[in-house]
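Researcher: Good morning. I'm working through a list of sequences from a screen, and I'd like to move beyond sequence-only analysis. For each chain I'm collecting a predicted structure so we can compare shapes side by side. This is the next one on the list. No need for commentary yet; just the structure.
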Amino acid sequence: MTADFLVIGAGIAGLSFAIRAAKHGSVVVLTKGDAFESNTAWAQGGIASVLPEGQRDEGDSGESHVLDTLDAGAGLCKESAVRTIVQDGAAAIEDLVSYGVSFDRENSHFQLGKEGGHSHRRILHARDTTGLEIARGLIETARNTPNLTLLENHFAIDLITTSKLGATVDDRVIGAYVLQTKTNEVHIFRSDRIILAAGGCGKVYLYTTNPDSATGDGVALGWRAGASIANMEFIQFHPTCFYNPGATGPEARSFLVSEAVRGEGGILINSKGEDFTKKIDPRGSLAPRDIVARAIDREIKRTGAACVYLDVTHKPKGFMKERFPYIYETLMKFGLDCEVQPIPVVPAAHYQCGGVLTDVNGKSTLRGLFAVGEVGCTGLHGANRLASNSLLEGNVVARRALDEMLKIYPLGKSFTSPPEIPAWEYGDTAEPDELVVIYHNWDEIRRLMWDYVSIVRTDNRLRRASARLRNLKKEVREFYWGHRVNSDILELRNLVTVARLIVECATRRKESRGLHYTLDHPNSDERLCTDTVLRKF
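Model: Good morning. Structure tokens for this chain:
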């Protein structure tokens, strides 16, 4: 199949791009599972934006949003990118509303929430399932957009570049090998304009708020194709994942209690009822996420407790059920009435602040390849993401990426014809006969990343993780070439790739900054306040 634009991923970034691009040419959007299985659809809190005067919080401004973002980013944000993305916030909201997204309102104005690190109320939401509402609006629009084909259950295996076909100059993307997971057939998709929008890598850790699909596919695709990767050491751990060890199932393991709950007055306490976060930062429970997650980690290790608690019992009766119905009802399903009992919580991997290195328009270092949303590293987030800036970035950069792509790769332009693309190479056609080993490797990667490369790190832990991952890479390669490839093997391959990138970036940063905290280098060093950029090793 050939398309003017090939989009890999169907969250806010991919679909915001695709819907607009379809006005200019043919668009194919690939998603490896169901279209609703994305980090976008799982986002609870909301989207940060300073609205026009008369609709915004009193005293708020674009400059205030910029300063909050820079503060959260711990000195590593690219200020020009921050200003560009923040200034387009109101346009992003208009864009989403035009696709039928319904944000909560009070009378004629949008209802605005507050989250950690924000100095004002500027978070638009749809109760506590904002991401799901955004996904619904975008998916429905995409399915009714002419010139746009949305293909579910299509897993991108590898990008095809001219260098892989023997070219020595002018390396660029020309397509992708794609596994149709329902039939296990591999197809070639041709395009000179490819957009990675495949989301994050939360499943590289044992505990995460992400859906099972978040296996770092986009970063791994970009890396294998030769694009530069940056700042993968900065993995944000959400402070408040529901702690429920006795329950089973994905929802029990990864249920997020939104930051917006703290924005509306929820307080983190220990088993004695003490607000321990105030000892770490005067903002307490509303400090940026890196500070709060480390405070929880410290409290758990200091006391030997299994968790801490998020207390909303002081709020009026019925408040949680009205403002956060999904959270309230889910907790009730697990036997906890949060209006009566504090909510047990622990940190969990949530968001990657690094990714495929791009400019503010999503343009990567590889010709024809753009990366938008969580998979890309524009410089907006720096060393720590400000809450609810991710959905904003996904829409804004998607729109900018299309404008840039049409300018430098105009439709109808004649590119040098590449050699004929060969069929995808694969190993033995036998089905994997040792699935238990595949699942064991998957589990081992996630456990070693949690034990050695999570909230607090050391040089020795990183060395151990690196050594084991080198061996795991060899084992995964044997699976990849020795068996008929399926989605489990492809995800395992991507997981080990991304885990190695995280460890390599973390090893190179000899300081503590934002989300990267190491006991061997506990202070920040302004001489090291630069991006950690990796080129294929």
